[in-house]
Target: long-chain-fatty-acid--CoA ligase
Amino acid sequence: MALQQHNGPDQIVPSEHIVTTRADGRINLRIPESGKAIETTPPISVPGLLKRTADNSPDCPALAYKEDGKWKQITYKEYYDQVRICAKAFIKLGLKRHHGVCILGFNSPEWFISDLAAIFAGGIAVGIYTTNSSEACYHCANYTKANIIVVQDQKQLDKILAIKSRLSDLKAIVQYEGEPTSPDVLSWSELLTIGKDQGDEELERVLKTIAVNECCTIVFTSGTIGKPKAAMLSHDNLTWDALTISERLEVKKRGEVLVSYLPLSHVAAQVVDIYIVMINSACTYFADANALKGTLVDTLKEAQPTKFLGVPRVWEKMHEKMMEVAAQNGGIKQAIASWAKNQALEHHLNKIQGVNSNSWGYCIASAVIFKKIKQALGFNRCTLYASAAAPLAADIKRYFLSLDIPIMEAFGMSEAAGAHTLCTMDSFGLDTIGMGLPGTKTKIVNPEDGQGEICMYGRHIFMGYLNDQEKTDEAVDSEGWLHSGDLGRIDQKNFVYITGRLKELIITAGGENIAPVPIEQLVKAELPHISNVFLVGDKKKFLSVLLTFKTEVEPESGRPLDILIPNVQEWLKSLGCPAKSVSEVLRAGPDPALLHALQDGIDRVNQQAVSNAQRIQKLSILPVDFSMATGELGPTLKVKRNIVAAKYSDIIERMYA
Model:
């Protein structure tokens, strides 16, 4: 057991280690002796941060949620009190120090409260993706010795009940939405009643044992290759990163409203949604579970956010819908829209180059046209639009740039407490992931032609992987640098660019190393009716590509349907090969006109290839799109390359026969 001291929760317990793989381990914080990293953000625990905000801004709204069609708010004082009540209940139910509280559900106040209560009570908060299977949930709960599991509803509860008998450390299950049907499961109201019946003495005793440099949160990596690893994050990892992000994003005043659509079990969401709002008394509005089915815009209109953060799929869905609407406009409207978009695009491209050109055309378009577009989207007050969790295609960013909506990209890892680099309104581009946060360091190791592995250093770098010394040593070197596994470069202005991923490199039969993602994004840009692009060619003589069409999605499960979305149908009709479904396209073999159109797009990509080895020689159309529900995409919507390669091995082999 690690050394206990009793001056918490904001104490730092001495340690000589820069990493640990023990749940009760402590690390030596990467704090410089002087400079901005220490002067503006002295170490503080998560409980200390929430208490400070509740004391300073007790009546400010912290969380907003919808109930019976009406928005309700929770103030910071109420938030703090509910977290303490929940923490006392967790302790009473048997939560031990350094044991997990797993949370399995969609974004909600109960999710936030459970997360923070686990930390207050001396446990470790563990988010689980709602898309996880029962076995994946078992891995997370068993690995973290979870004493308590909090679930959203019956659907998520069923996953836990199926594995309950195998979880020897489990003491209680709580369901926060609806009434539990199982007698062994507590409702949210029953949990709070237990907490209200407890005194404060035990909670205060536990808080005094907490240290800033111990683990408070575990984030399981998305597991695109092998089982997910348990990344351990300290209080300082989270609070320092959140304080620094809030400064870069200028979340500085009360009255800020944040709306986000990120999976809460992903650390980026935890840092942004939970901790930034604590720091500056901002309020988080919750997008509901049907956000990608059309309700997100309703939430935006009602919440009127000043900051909006979404995963790339959110921006892609907005783009698809807006393209459908635009296609139905008459010739005059289309001409006006085209003129306005050119004005905005020129303005922002000039701004990227450092030229502030507020032309009359841009000012008129902004006041007359873009103002209405932003009102229709709920972006009237929005000063920041951001994307995180996975790369956003440059053509999507370019499209929104032409609507006067510049999307700022953030880059980070579970192992870097969310963000390491950010684009801001003063420094952004179409293909960069921004500059490092103040107080962080970035370097490129083993560079060839200016490109190499991106490595990161700072107070946000994680503690280590729970119970996995080998993987920890692979990720963090002896000097404390985190090796990202991403290939990239840094330009003269200190902008960072990702050019590929080490583990995803395709090595052709000729020995050339090729990063697939940049090529895949180029194909998507040239063929906007294509949903997913998958480059193949490992150990082969040439590159080929698998393509999926954009199709409708089953509302409940998120599974892609056979029906093509309207603008894809219109495109096929314009080619002279009308079809309403993918199966119709493939039934007698793709029409030559369609293949010619796809090949034209591939040819345009090939013209940009730096070598013959990077030219795409063949293509195949897949019968169904990728999705989380069908297993090709991970929780952050990154492609699981090994899954796709195995699933379509027969099609791949036919291309090389």
